Amino acid sequence: MKEQSERLYGLDHLRSLAIILVLMYHYRAFRHPVWIDSVGRFGWTGVDLFFVLSGFLISSQLFKEIENKETISLNIFYTKRFFRIIPPYGVTLLLYFTFPFFREREALPPLWKFISFTQNLGLNVIDQGTFSHAWSLCIEEQFYLLLPLFLLMVKRIKLFQYIAVLIILLIPFSLVLRFFMWNQFLVSADSNSSEFWRLWYMNIYYPTYARLDGLGIGVLIGYLMQYSSVFKRFVHCHGNKLFFLGLVLLGVSFWVCNEQASKEASVFGFTLVAVSYGILVMSAVSESSFFSRVRCYATTQLAALSYAVYLSHKGIIHMVQTGLDYLEVQTSDNISLMICFFACIGGGLLYRYLIEKPFSRLKYRLLNSSHK
After folding, report:
1. pLDDT in tens, 218-229
2. Is the four-CA dihedral 167, 234, 277, 187 of positive or negative sign?
3. What is the dihedral of CA 317, 319, 325, 326, to 10 degrees?
4. What is the reported pTM?
5. Which pLDDT band, with edges at 50, 70 and 90, does 3 fall under?
6. Residues 23, 24, 30, 31, Cα dihedral to 10°
7. Mean pLDDT throughout 42-52?
8. How confident is the model at residue 345, as a pLDDT?
9. Helix-strand-coil percent breakdown of the chain, rounded to 5?
10. In which element (H, E) is residue 98 found?
11. Residues 134/109, Cβ–Cβ less than 8 Å
12. CB 268 within 8 Å of CB 259
């Protein structure tokens, strides 16, 4: 085995890709250059990539703890998640609910839905679309809450060795539910109407039960890398082949998802996208892959800022374009796009140094004091 200090950079490349995809996708909702419409149309898959990455990273951490300690310290796990997620999220909520100028749209869902991380359930994005991108964070928080409890329960009832089977069954579960929801709510709806999009987002795109593919595939890879020596050896020996296979399958996925809200994309496309990104994650952690060995300062830094940028980017883009309008500066050209992009990076840096780093120090003080 190689030394652990030899970092694999592939996951940083993927995380930075995910946030760039999301930025391009959401930038289409603002004034933008024409090319953004074509380049950014598949940017929604950046969220699916985040799901696969979260499923892999969090499950890997938990599986290693179970392997070493036979249990999971819920106190430590939830403390780490709390200080990583809640402070930046809380500040963003404060900005949205206290400073209307920050809002990219007018109407917000109720505050309690954001606080309870249930905003993604029944979200009417047509009438209450402000800070709508918090839907994916809600799913991830539900995942963080339930996964360690699920693993402990499965271990206690002596079914831990069947986790891979349970996860594999979970993936078609979302596919079948999306098929049911399509036939229940969308089969007779006019695809050109706002009502169609409201129903599609509410029943297909945002609900937790419909978006378990990416998380499930990430967890499955984490489990197999920890407990299957055959799978682990295969990944480490075929990193470059996995990279190119992932790209080819992602191209197929984009072809299936050419119309994002079509039945084919809604039912099968999400799963194909998740599998494609799962294969790229396998390449990203493979010791034989060029993708995991090539270091890039830009992707390392962008990956570290991705959560803060994800939270704040819509509000920042809205404020920058409003300011450019006031100065009578063109807002639909490439220069405006670059100004908005660097403003988002600047916002991410403010989050890092004013919120994330102070709360990270507090987190370690609390964890260290609890071990004394």
Report:
1. 999 999 999 999
2. negative
3. -160
4. 0.95
5. very low
6. 140
7. 97
8. 98
9. 75, 0, 25
10. helix 74-98
11. no
12. no
